[in-house]
Design goal:
Elements lengths: L1 E4 L6 E3 L15 E2 L5 E3 L8 H10 L3 E3 L2 H14 L19 E5 L8 E9 L5 E3 L3 E2 L2 E2 L7 E7 L4 E12 L5 E4 L3 E6 L7 E11 L9 E8 L3 E7 L8 E9 L3 E16 L6 E8 L4 H17 L3
Length: 304
Amino acid sequence: MEFKRLDRGAALQPLMPSEVLPETQLEWPVFDADGTLIAERGQVLPSLEDRDFMFIHFEPHRSRTAADVALDMADSAGAGSAETPELDLADLVLQTGHVLRIKTPKGVRESHALSRVIGQTPNQTTFISPPVVDGKPLRLLTGENIQIMAFSGKSIFEYRCTVETVCRTPFEYLILSKPFDVRRVKLRRTVRVSTRIACWLSVGERFQGTYDMLGAIRDMSVLGASLSARGQFAQAGSRLHLRFSVRTQDYDIEIRTPSIIRNVTPVTNDPNLFLYGLEFESLAPVEHLALQCFVTEHSLGNGR
């Protein structure tokens, strides 16, 4: 497995199908619109059907080059989780951008909302963006006690705090008190999250050194995934070898793992597509942790 630090400032340029030639090594890595890696530089799309699959199921982009920037400038000029006992607060470290799931006290206003960390002081006073539930702002009041679920990058935590200040200028944000009643929560192994991840695969008991087909992971847990691909190329009980990347708060993480096909189902609205239910095999501890991080972040973001 390979960890790659993300360059959040890197701009992406949409790709046209004519720029991706089958049976030819890619000149650059290809990313989905959210920055998730689809194919590495040098990867070969075996056929026109694989190229079409990529553009139907994903939004291929490449990194912008200096030539792209210069061309834009010229154009512009021309135009004019079971709980453990309470933890020490040192265990709870939140980084800017981390997602928070907020629950208000039970009653008429009970609801779950999502927010993000703007910053945290050394004494663990936290600055957060205005919470949003179903696309609408959740109005919290100064002095209100709330319950928060957060993911630190290693563990998922649940804690309570008090809204100390609701600020309106120069922009809207909230200041929360130092957390209390902090507990670590264990993520259920059965939690699945919807995804759209490019996955390269190879069929066979033993990996032959090349991934020769492109599929799309539709949902995933720490135990396995549902993968759609062209055609019925294997039966339940067969082994696939997978290579895919997941994106967490700070990293692109490449995972290469064998998996067992548990079921095969045709996709009702597309006779050329099949859905493969997969169980991951032989995940290293660091790979398992990477998947758990990914699933946790997405389950918090989806309000699960």
